[in-house]
Specification:
22 strands; 785 residues; 5-stranded antiparallel β-sheet
């Protein structure tokens, strides 16, 4: 079963490799709108790089041609057009269930590291040595026990035989054993002894060694006379008056398999001097060795177990350690969700490929991919669908990569692909757009449909970076350009992006220094009522006074402050400083302060406003906070709750730049705004055409119908002011009425406005007095005035 699975994997891998080659590399049989192949670079000898490679190198790097397919050729390959002669046909896509099973089998296994293989081989050697040593020890112990057992057995039978022979000699002592005068009692003892099952021969000898009499058991094998004489010859050698014993090994036919002969003197027996007793120990020896074999077998088995168990345990522990190591290595180098390489492993692979391509004089392209608005997929369909969506994205990208390690998941919704032998920037862009066409579109996940697109940044080595870190930094800049420009596009890295990034980094340094050295200042632009021609308040505007560059526009540093998080302490300082300054103004004058969406992230903005008003002593109704529609698009509970809390404080809510965003009318009643601020682009359109003027009138009418305070900003001409006044938009702000001034000049403007108001009041009072004295109609005088 395993063999068939491996064969199927090899077949699928080969088919997909051929399909990728047919989709990416041009061939003579295809109709392409652009050249099908870039002429390969040559060396000094004029040979193409392919001619310099060995067949093994050509096989190791199969897609040796630059990937130069244009959009038309890619679409034809996707539609399943007939391949050119000599090329493999595109494999039909299997059913979805089968495809998932195939994809599951394609999951890369944990890498087998050489160091781990060496460690495993060493552990196996140790295990084998332990087993061999155990065997040697067991065999040695068995040999020692065998030799000692033979001696013990001989000692045991010797003692028994000698004891029986001596006992027989004692019974025969003093009796006649041979000749005609043999004792009946002696004969009975000899016959009784010979009747024993193990005694098969008794010899009686005279003083000179002459054989006097031989008694043998006819039912037992009788030893030949030669053998008996040889035995007796060996039994006559003990010391005088002593006992002699010897064991013999027979053939089991004529003689017993093992027997012994014991020669003992007989006291007082005439004419017999000695007695030889032959005993058969064959059955005893067989039983003894049977018992001993069991003991030795048990000892050998125990020895084997004692040495085999540690060896097997060592092998098992080694295998477990290897499996755990491989799993940990796999988890360390791969993303657990998509089974793609992670950032660390991908950077190492990228570094190796950059050096390899540099040595071969070839180019390499890096594609940095970001899935557009992936957060919306999670929020709309849930995280389970989001995870499955990322798996499908990884599967599509894996089919586009030359090798599994050339594609990686770098972050939540960020992926990267290495394009080997890119051929140049042009062909890298073509491949990037092909990646985009594969990723863009419909994803079906558990009965739900998800439509997605991708933003792709491209950098080519060695032009855009000679190492992985530099190339990743530059391709990130290219991706940021796509994301800031509307997404769902491809961007190639250029040197201008580096200059822009350097400018942003320089601005970050300026902002940090501005905090330390207090370069930030507040300017206040006056706001007027056209109907009364009186000052109604000021808007606080932030300025950065650089000692060398002069006044820096907020359009340069506010976006950087929002991205870096510096806008939070900066916005807090603006609010406190502006309220402290406005608390010294006359009470009718209002203060407008802009709030950034980043200030709502912490959730403490209502408390900050409340504490600031309390510290400055300024009344809440004199403060107006201006927010843009970008904040309202989030519509999170945290933002909504903070806006409601601010409203409860009595602070006015004003929608800034109305008309430039979605301008959804639902915002005006959902958030209970107190006013709207018409963007300067509409005001500047006065006199440019009736369409713009009608649109401006509609905005003013909407605000008035909802009882909102309508303020027009950017008023710079008398024509614009007359149009606004004639259309009932009295609240204005712009250069026509006053430039932003530092806080030191605000009291002068307020004093001037008070003097103008005083003179107008006096003039009206004086005019009414004259009218009454002359009997004129006051109402007509006012109308004439």
């Amino acid at each position: 079963m395993k063999t068939s699975d491996k064969a199927e994997e090899h077949i699928l891998a080969g088919a997909k490799a051929k399909a990728r080659l047919s989709q990416i590399s041009g061939s003579p049989g295809e109709d392409m709108s652009e050249p099908a192949q870039v002429p390969p670079s040559t060396d000094e000898a004029g040979r193409a790089p392919e001619a310099q490679k060995t067949p093994q190198e050509m096989q190791a790097h199969e897609p040796a041609q630059p990937q130069v397919q244009d959009a038309q050729a890619g679409q034809e390959a996707d539609r399943g057009a007939d391949p050119a002669p000599g090329r493999a046909k595109k494999r039909k896509k299997p059913a979805r269930g089968k495809q998932r099973r195939l994809f599951a089998r394609k999951q890369p296994s944990a890498p087998k590291l050489p160091r781990e293989r060496r460690a495993t081989s060493g552990d196996r050697t140790v295990s084998v040595v332990v087993i061999v040593v155990g065997l040697l020890v067991a065999v040695t112990m068995t040999g020692i026990v065998y030799l000692q057992a033979e001696r013990l057995f001989e000692a045991s039978v010797r003692g028994e035989a000698v004891e029986r022979a001596e006992f027989l000699a004692e019974r025969l002592a003093g009796q006649s054993l041979s000749g005609s005068a043999r004792s009946r009692e002696a004969e009975a003892v000899l016959k009784d002894t010979l009747a024993k099952s193990d005694v098969f021969r008794i010899e009686l000898r005279g003083a000179d060694g002459e054989m006097l009499r031989v008694l043998s058991d006819e039912d037992s094998p009788s030893p030949s006379r030669v053998a008996a004489e040889g035995a007796l010859a060996s039994l006559t050698e003990p010391a005088a008056g002593g006992t002699s014993w010897r064991g013999f090994h027979g053939d089991g036919l004529r003689t017993p398999a093992y027997y012994s002969g014991t020669l003992v003197p007989v006291a007082g027996a005439e004419p017999t001097e000695t007695l030889a007793l032959f005993i058969d120990h064959g059955s005893e020896r067989a039983l003894f060795w049977q018992w001993l074999s069991g003991i030795l077998g048990a000892i050998l088995a125990l020895a084997m177990i004692a040495f085999t168990i540690p060896a097997v345990s060592l092998l098992l522990r080694t295998k477990q350690k290897r499996d755990v190591y491989e799993k940990l290595t796999y988890v360390r180098d791969h993303d657990t969700l998509t089974a793609l390489s992670n950032r660390e492993q991908f950077l190492a692979t990228l570094d190796v490929e950059i050096r390899r391509h540099a040595d071969q004089g070839q180019r390499l392209a890096l594609h940095y991919i970001d899935i557009d608005r992936f957060k919306e997929v999670n929020d709309t369909h849930g995280h389970l669908v989001g995870d499955e969506f990322l798996k499908q994205v990884a599967e599509r990208l894996r089919d586009l990569a030359d090798r599994p390690e050339h594609v990686a998941r770098l972050g939540g919704d960020e992926f990267a692909i290495i394009q080997t032998q890119a051929g140049g920037v042009k062909y890298a862009e073509i491949h990037a757009r092909r990646i985009g066409s594969v990723l863009n579109g419909l994803y079906r996940i558990d009965g739900e449909e998800v439509v997605a697109s991708a933003s792709i940044g491209v950098a080519v080595a060695p032009e855009h970076g000679e190492n992985a870190v530099e190339l990743m930094k530059n391709v990130d800049l290219a991706l940021n350009k796509v994301k800031s420009g509307g997404r769902n596009d491809v961007s190639i890295f250029t040197s201008e992006l580096t200059s822009s990034m350097q400018g942003r980094l320089e601005m970050q340094a300026i902002l940090r220094r501005a905090f330390r050295e207090k370069w930030f200042v507040l300017y206040f632009q006056p706001q007027y009522n056209l109907a009364t021609r009186r000052l109604t308040g000021f808007e606080a505007l932030l300025r950065l006074k650089h000692p060398e560059r002069g006044v820096v526009s907020p359009a340069e540093f506010i976006p950087v402050a929002e991205e870096t998080g510096m806008i939070e302490p900066l916005g807090e300082w603006i609010l406190r400083e502006a309220c402290r300054t406005a608390s010294l103004w006359p009470e009718p004058l209002t203060l407008a302060v802009n709030l950034s969406p980043a200030q709502f992230k912490k959730g403490n903005l209502p408390n900050l406003i409340k504490n600031t008003l309390k510290a400055s002593g300024m009344k809440p109704e004199r403060l107006e906070v201006e927010i843009t529609e970008g904040l309202l698009l989030e519509s999170s509970n945290r933002v909504l709750s903070q806006l409601r809390e601010i409203k409860k404080l009595g602070v006015g809510l004003v929608m800034d730049d109305f008309g430039t965003g979605y301008s959804s009318l639902s915002y005006l009643w959902r958030f209970a705004f107190d006013g709207i601020k018409i963007d300067r682009s509409f005001v500047h359109g006065v006199g440019a055409g009736r369409h713009v003027e009608r649109l401006l009138r509609s905005i003013i009418m909407i605000g008035k119908s909802l009882s909102l305070k309508v303020t027009a900003e950017g008023v710079e001409s008398a024509e614009q002011a007359h149009f606004l006044l004639s259309n009932d938009c009295a609240h204005v702000q712009g250069f026509l009425f006053g430039w932003p001034v530092p806080k030191e000049e605000v009291p002068t403007m307020i004093a001037k406005d008070i003097r103008v108001g005083t003179r107008e009041a006096q003039a009206r009072s004086h005019g009414k007095g004259k009218g009454k004295a002359a009997g004129a109609d006051p109402q007509r005088e006012d109308e004439a005035a």
